[in-house]
Here is the input.
Amino acid sequence: GDHRDLHYPLRRQRQMCIRDRIVDVPPAVATQAIESYERLRPANSVLSETVRAASWLFLTAKASGVKVYKKDFYALPNVSREAFNKSLTTYAEQGNAYIEEIVSEEL
Here is the structure.
């Protein structure tokens, strides 16, 4: 199914965050992004798994109070500005319930 497709790109992105530090997201937040994605399996119209993973990581980091910048995510391999923002919009259109859920776990 769809969730397994994204599991790998998210994990790969977590490795990239740790190794390359292109995107400054704490490993714990990246792990949280993977877990919440697996649980919630949000739909997204963007085909690129890499972009979906990147935008989910961005939203999770933002919701967790981590200072993240879109320009850093645009610098990731295979992530275009247009696709990244479309992916963010697609997630946002589903409402922020999943983002609030991510945050509430931290409280």
User: Anything to note?
Assistant: The first helix runs from residue 2 to 20.
